[in-house]
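Hi V.,

You were right to ask for the full record rather than a summary. Here it is.
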Amino acid sequence: MVGKERSIRTRIKIAKTKRFFGIPLTGSKPKKKFIKKIGLKKGALSRQLNIPQEKEIPMMLLNRIIKAKAGDTIMNPTMIGKRRIKVTRLLERRAIFARTLKRLPKRKWMNK
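Predicted structure:
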């Protein structure tokens, strides 16, 4: 290996990483972050669940909301927020979105 040359395996690994994080492989424009495109109401899910925005919404609660059908009333399995929660389609969609964001690496979607 001479100087700055890299093996093919290393180059493929770097290319996959760049593609995953939206970094352009060549001189093209970088991909825009999808969070900026949607009409996001920050803290809406927290307000709906009566959980302070500073506290993190437990994954167990998000999963329970997502599993329930719209119109059902569920009991909160955690100790924060409302005890009984009426599941609406909007609440379910917000919970799905929150779970998706929790699973993503933060640098992928957060503004710096």
